[in-house]
Amino acid sequence: MFTPDVESKDKQTKWLYSDIVKEHFFDPKNFMVDDDGYEASGMGMVGSPACGDMMTVWIKVDPAGDRIVDMKWRTFGCGSAIASTSMHSVMIVENGGRTIEEALAIKPQHIIERLGGLPDRKIHCSVLSDKALRSAINDYFRKTDQRSRIVIEGARIVDKVMKVTDHDIEEAVLEGADTLEKVQARTKVGAGDPSCLPEVEQLIRFYQEKYFG
After folding, report:
1. E strand segments, the chain
2. Which sequence positions are flagged as catalytic?
3. Does the N terminus or the C terminus of the chain have fewer Cβ atoms within 10 A?
4. Could you read off the pLDDT of 116-170 as tens digits, one per residue?
């Protein structure tokens, strides 16, 4: 029997975090203390404080190498959100920084792996970090008149606040989320716009039938 690091008020939910997650929570890397005077190449934001999680990401790009040489961030959220964004920033700028193409290839599961895992109910935190960075990269493309490089999501946004798409829901179902609660745990859909939940339930049924009969 393990001693949980965090326990919900009703004592029904418990979370155990890896030492790496704790390190990035207690000593976050590349955190933006004061953005006054910071000359960012691009800035992206996702989420809302009213929903519990909001992330802002700033990046600096070396145009000569098309490389992200700095990534700063600020988040209003839980320990997993802080740790995920901290680790993501390390992965982006380590070894002199990643090219934009390499940065876009980093997926939420890669962040989770580097953290040594996250509780299932906290997986959405790494997704928010991924979306915020992509938004910052698109902002850089707009500012530098590289509109042909803007990443256009091939999916339809279902929750406009959390920017959860039908593709996100499809991936969650493929990864084993077979109920609304499990899909919400992975994507946080509905936290920003509860009115979308009936549509989310329809999508879950559709993808369940499509892939699992």
Report:
1. 6-7, 14-15, 42-48, 53-62, 67-76, 98-99, 157-159, 164-165
2. 51, 125
3. N
4. 887 766 666 667 788 899 989 999 999 999 988 877 666 788 988 888 888 889 8
Continuous segment of H or E residues that includes residue 153: none
Task: Give the list of residues 6+ apart from residue 6 with CB closer than 8 angstroms, or none.
Answer: 14, 15, 17, 79
AA identity, residue 111: I
| Integer angstrom CA distances of residue 130 from 92, 124, 169, 204 | 11, 10, 16, 23
CA dist 87 and 122 (Å) reads 15
Question: Residue 181 is encoded by which pair of tokens?
Answer: 């609660």
Distance CA 156, CA 76 (A): 26
Residue 52 lies in a domain: yes
Boundary-marking domain end, from 106, 129, 152: 152
Q: Report which of 70, 67, 43, 41 is spatially closest to residue 55, judged by C-alpha positions.
A: 43
Number of domains present in the structure of the chain? 2
Domain end: 120, 152, 184, which one?
Answer: 152
